Predict the structure.
Amino acid sequence: MRTVGLASLIGAGLLIVAFGCSKGEKPPAGTAAAPQPAAAPSSDSRGGATITGEVKLVGTAPANPAIDMSEEPKCKADYTTSPHEQIVVVNRNGALSDVFVYVKTGLPADAKYAAPTTPVVIDQKGCMYHPRVFGIMVGQPLRIVNSDPLLHNIKAMGKNNRPFNISQPAAGMTTERTFTAREVMLPFECNVHGWMHAFVGVLPYSFFSTTGEDGRFTIKDLPAGTYTIEAWQERYGTQTAAVTVEGSETKTVDFTYTAKTGR
């Protein structure tokens, strides 16, 4: 009995010693440490810089074509004067509306940006698309609304994205779609009303803006870097500018288009 008890005590002591040594033990010199898991890539590579500016038209703006809505009295009733296509829209100071301005190049190739779950809305009202020019992220929902009490269809003529053609015969109808690839610009049209046009810039990030009535745009939350900023206008095409930003600074870049005759 005494021999068995001594053996048990010796075994227990060895276990205590082994545990105590292993708890704070360091690997011998020359032994590689266990590999650590790689850091997860950033899900939203943003910064604090801002690029802002104004887009103007120099010269006399061309007359936008009039729209004959005589066969659509329900739409015509929405207008107090004869409606026109909104191809070139300027204010008295020459500020140009509906210009899509975006970061074309310069972002890190491995940057990732999460698409918002909040949809961008395009409405068919008064036999026009609202807005006419806008931006959306890849994967972000596009909500298509018909506010008119008549048939509309929205035809997306994508090249990088799959085209679609949706009919909405009654007011209050909504449909949602998403885009899967970058495309600037992707046009929309209506086969029922040939004057209805809209354009969307589809990008994998949210560094874009569309000028309003004051001709101004703002692109926020940019990481430090040098970027090519592109402005796109339906009639006058594109212009580019190089801009470098650091930290949380704001840089200004303006674009000027020159009016030209003819459509």
About this structure: The chain has a mean pLDDT of 87.
